[in-house]
């Protein structure tokens, strides 16, 4: 069985028709959900591209892998999905975005070069690369945001788009009435059509790459097809740009009470520029329809891909995973972007189709188990029939759920956020190590712990599913807070770095040193069978103890 | 300035005359103490050889480096003192024991071979090796405990000791009246002289190697001279074997109350074979004098080394550190060996001589700051005048204390113990991840947290310096326990894996993406200076939005 691991970027869990969106039809996401399981309580381990993806790809919490924000390199030697899957005989390929930043210093220290297979895999987060494109070819006076080469820009140039950066000037910009670039970076342009042939835009292009890969891939393969959309810039080519409009824009899920006695960290985020933009209805009325259009385009392209899998017979022997690296506030909670832990940000869609007979009973069902994105790495290893190395992988296989079982399961999910590189850190005047947030959610209560001496935040999603009422403003819920802090403490003491010795190896080693002569408890040797001390017995030979010089 | 980092194995903090031992004279340890600072509250991060040393050598807590017990490999890529010092231009050499176990799987995964300089350093915990000998050439029916080559055994053979394993039959055994080997593994033989010329025994041999190294070393060098003694087998050559006797053996520091309502983990350790042996006065009466003899020999050899440093001028330009990887219960608390967190086990001697003028004011003084062994790595980097990379090294430089300052300092020390590979784990019926202990000590209260659902242990060293009365047996000290658990939780949430990005790098990166065109908050672009969006402006060129095919 192959594994097709599809990730979208910044796709909210509730912007799918199978998730209940009132007007956005996503028939192809639904198509996979109808044949698989849709997980309704799936949480990423950090609501930001880089750190979230590093957790997906290592199967480890952010505090365990340390690549805590965008651009923080993943340390050399950290094991990835690719390493785990290759051990089982499955190749692991990348088509698209990882947001991986190579640990150049570590590579140099270990003498690894990117032009060796091993070095390349280290540099590419364990993937073999079919195409690597992180999808954000932003460019300013200091140059490109992404210093890698851009296969997508090269493609556009080969298609005749004459510009230095056609991603910026065509795929992510429209044309205004004066014939000038109307960049998708500006929300006022979100409702304009991107100045590009639809089939040349990013999502179709990456889908073409995915199909090309699949057609030549040697089974068993894992392909990580990793789209940039619907991540900003919020602009999409015709016909998607006006498929939706203000009538499709839901009222923002936000309440004045959220800004009263607001938690200081939430407060500075609510004051940032993107929050200010999304607090405007005119911005939401343009951006959200574009966002929806991008998702609809994703859905159409998913349909192409699924059709191809059907036609080629791959649907029979390929597990399909659809997910996202985090969500998008879109103005909910007075915020834009992601970063914090409300549902629109930290919860993600997760749909898994397992083609095998064992998964028959759960087709089309919904599962509300508390899932962490790091469960996917464990699931893939388990799907290969290999033991999940739980001294390295911190998630748990989802196969039991897919196969209709009810396994012993976790009682809470964890997510983390490091905002030390942001303007919010500067505003709060904090040193980097203090700029860290932890979420613990037990299915009902969601607590955010903030380092730096702040009080926590607490929501009761049973009585307040909109997460408006921060119950940590007073002391009415101190009992719950204490309980959750106890669980968070337990999590903090977890074994996460004992990556070179499995539980099984430890158990097998017990007592081993006795038979290798390590016997530091003998009074006269009669305490153990003679064979254990035989090397320590027998004729002494020369006696050196009679004189200092060894003479007899 | 060079750094001579001398470590003894299993040397108790109180078995030195400068530490107040009533009968054991250690004039050379005292000699260094008289010229330096003796730290009276120095604690190792795990009271067991392997894990303690991995913490010393990485400058990181056990939970951070993961090599939690003897034989658990240190993961490939983990930075070591050697890496940090080489960055500053100082070489870092090993003479003796490290207890390092190579991460063979990780080396293979990264294509590193032990015959390359990089691979060798990875395999040897970051050291360049003058001589590597872990000092425990135990041998049983299943072969040698240590699969490396034994330079010491090779030396003995070259000196005419005819045996397959002269370490076992000569250096660590005597001769009985029948001319048979009287092994030092048996405590009944502890008072016999080892069957070896004193100058050929382990401590003089290693001292010879150290002198040889120093005489040819290129400054600036760091030499880790790492002795196996006074670690068992408890046997020493003449004249040391009868230098001390039962009159020198202090009463065991133990009390019946320690065994009442005993903490389950402490209880199973008190029932193990070595504890049983050390609960016998006849064992203590033989072993402790041998232990003292081994230490006296260490002191005499230290004297040789110091004399050589004086004669060669190296005393003027070499920092000297004397310490141990953990202690030895010797029957205190009804225990033998180490493993647990009472003072005789987890506290170690630490004497530092800094030859520079800045250290003049503290010569011969004593410092009671709460020190962790991981402070040494930070101290060495600081001594090189380099910034201590505190996103990797978790200890703090001791230089301020050596130079007479009173720096902001820690409020508690942490130590950890993983007993998953031991018989105690089997007795308690626990899975490996539950076999973990944590100590937190604030200078007065010492708490041990035990995973696996056990209650903690608590001692008040101000009112109960002997650590007899476990205040966690009842609830009289719940307040202190809660307070310490709060601190332990904080420690559990520390940043330990963000090893690829320093605080300084994070601060320097803030705002950087704006000038690289990442502007996800613009409504119309007027929010930022024009130059930031200039690439996104200008003539659009071909307009593809007019028709699906791109025709005008």
Automatic annotation (TrEMBL), chains A, B:
Q: Which Gene3D superfamilies match?
A: Alkaline Phosphatase, subunit A (3.40.720.10)
Top-level division of the source organism's lineage:
Bacteria
SUPFAM superfamilies per the record? Alkaline phosphatase-like
Q: Which InterPro entries match?
A: Alkaline_phosphatase_core_sf (IPR017850), Sulfatase_N (IPR000917)
An annotated Gene Ontology molecular function: metal ion binding
**Any one of the GO CC terms:** cytoplasm
**Which keywords describe this protein according to UniProt?**
Hydrolase, Metal-binding
Q: Where is the Sulfatase N-terminal domain?
A: 2-384
Quote the protein name from its UniProt record: Arylsulfatase A
């Amino acid at each position: 069985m192959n594994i097709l691991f599809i990730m979208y970027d910044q796709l909210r869990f509730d912007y799918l028709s199978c998730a209940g969106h009132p007007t956005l039809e996503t028939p192809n996401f639904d198509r996979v959900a109808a044949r698989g399981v849709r997980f309704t309580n799936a949480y990423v381990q950090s609501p930001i591209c880089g750190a979230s993806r590093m957790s997906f790809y290592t199967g480890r919490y952010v505090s365990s892998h340390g690549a805590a924000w965008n651009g923080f390199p993943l340390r050399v030697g950290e094991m990835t999905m690719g390493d785990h899957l290759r051990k089982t005989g499955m190749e692991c390929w990348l088509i698209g975005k990882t947001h991986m930043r190579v640990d150049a210093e570590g590579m140099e220290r270990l003498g690894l070069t990117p032009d060796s297979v091993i070095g390349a895999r280290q540099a590419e987060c364990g993937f073999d690369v079919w195409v690597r494109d992180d999808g954000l070819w932003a460019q300013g006076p200091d140059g490109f945001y992404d210093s890698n080469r851009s296969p997508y820009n090269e493609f556009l140039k080969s298609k005749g788009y004459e510009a230095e950066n056609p991603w910026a000037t065509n795929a992510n910009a429209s044309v205004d009435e004066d014939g000038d670039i109307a960049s998708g970076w500006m929300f006022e342009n979100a409702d304009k059509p991107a100045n590009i042939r639809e089939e040349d835009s990013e999502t179709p292009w990456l889908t073409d790459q995915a199909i090309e890969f699949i057609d030549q891939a040697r089974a068993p393969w894992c392909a990580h097809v990793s789209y940039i959309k619907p991540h900003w810039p919020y602009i999409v080519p015709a016909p998607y740009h006006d498929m939706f409009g203000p009538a499709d824009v839901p009222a923002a899920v936000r309440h004045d009470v959220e800004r009263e006695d607001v938690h200081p960290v939430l407060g500075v985020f609510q004051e940032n520029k993107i929050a200010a933009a999304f607090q405007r209805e005119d911005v939401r009325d343009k951006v959200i329809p574009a966002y929806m259009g991008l998702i609809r385009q994703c859905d159409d392209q998913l349909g192409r891909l699924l059709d191809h899998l059907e036609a080629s017979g791959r649907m029979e022997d390929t597990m399909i995973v659809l997910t996202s690296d985090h969500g998008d506030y879109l103005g909910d909670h007075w915020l834009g972007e992601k970063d914090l832990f409300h549902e629109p940000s930290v919860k993600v869609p997760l749909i898994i189709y397992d083609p095998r007979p064992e998964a028959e009973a759960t087709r089309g069902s919904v599962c509300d188990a508390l899932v962490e994105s790091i469960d996917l790495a464990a699931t893939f290893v388990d799907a290969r029939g290999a033991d999940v190395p739980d001294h390295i992988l911190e998630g748990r296989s989802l196969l039991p759920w897919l196969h209709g079982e009810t396994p012993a399961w976790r009682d809470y999910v964890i997510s983390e956020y490091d905002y030390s590189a942001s303007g919010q850190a500067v505003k709060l005047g904090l040193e980097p190590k203090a700029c860290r947030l932890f979420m613990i959610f037990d299915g009902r209560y969601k607590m955010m712990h903030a380092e730096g001496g702040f009080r926590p935040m607490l929501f009761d999603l049973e009585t307040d599913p909109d997460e408006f009422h921060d119950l940590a403003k007073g002391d009415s819920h101190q009992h719950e807070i204490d309980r959750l802090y106890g669980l968070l403490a337990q999590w903090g003491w977890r074994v996460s770095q004992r990556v070179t010795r499995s539980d099984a190896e430890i158990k097998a080693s017990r007592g081993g040193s006795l038979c290798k002569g390590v016997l530091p408890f003998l009074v006269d040797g009669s305490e153990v069978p003679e064979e254990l001390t035989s090397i320590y017995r027998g004729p002494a030979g020369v006696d050196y103890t009679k004189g200092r010089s060894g003479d007899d």
